[in-house]
Amino acid sequence: MMSKDKFLNSDYKPDENTKQEIEALHKEGVSLSGVQLKYADMNNVKLVNADLSHADLTRADFSGASLYGVNLEGANLFKASFEGANLKAANMKNCNLLGVDFSGAKLNNVDWGEEHKVINEIEAEEANAAGDKQTAIEKYKEAGDVYRNLKINLQAQTLGEDVGQVFLREMITKRKQLPLFSPLRIASKIAYLTTGYGEKIGNILYTVIGTIVSCAFLYGIEGVSYGDKLLKFEGTQSFTEMLNIFGDLFYFSVVVFSTVGFGEILPIGPIGKTLMIFEGLIGGLILAILIIAVYKHLMDR
Length: 301
Known about the structure:
Layout: H1 18-27, H2 119-129, H3 133-156, H4 160-176, H5 183-195, H6 201-222, E1 224-226, E2 229-231, H7 239-257, E3 265-267, H8 270-298
Antiparallel strand pairs: 1-2, 1-3
Helix pairs in contact: 2-3, 3-4, 4-5, 6-7, 6-8
């Protein structure tokens, strides 16, 4: 059986026989974990289900390669080329994906790691926790570059779910590059919590419900007019009466949020009128985001 020892040497220089020797090792069932293939010409290589975990593939050329189910966990793929390669069902957890060429590569069902978080972002978080802000910013920028590259290539293959996850991570890394308490960072954090940057339908629905219920309670503090009645919470009311009033206020809040008109219920004071304007504007914006989010989840991007 051929030995892979020479490929584990960090000083190994690939030659014209490297591709054939690596293929032969794989056919013999030898793990290729940790191999050093910097600058190697591996175009059209056949390594289906191969174990290339923690390998150094810096600037290696894997264009047109058959890499279905390949394990690349922890590998260094800096500026490697996978143009036109088959990477379906590959494991790419904790890879260095900076500068990788995925043009035309098949990326269906690739495991990018938990929440699609790349190693650069993980390193940024570690640096930030250690108080090294400069390194953290640099790593967040690297992660942003990786996410943009992935997003472009995933969009080309209409892999909508992956595109959404990668876009979410891209926006998070952008936010974390901003000064901690800057208005832009605060606004970005609010957008993340309330809508998940337009990618988390659950967040949007919670925001819709929370806004409607909160506004309904606030309308009840100052009161709104309903025909010849005043809908307002008072300490002398029974629980049933307050529940009935809240039902009417909830209806009014839904109407305002959905911007369909106000009917017979109208705010009577400055607080209620200001709240009505705020809720109407927020409602129009969030409903538009919800429609777009639902469309993206149901249709190919």
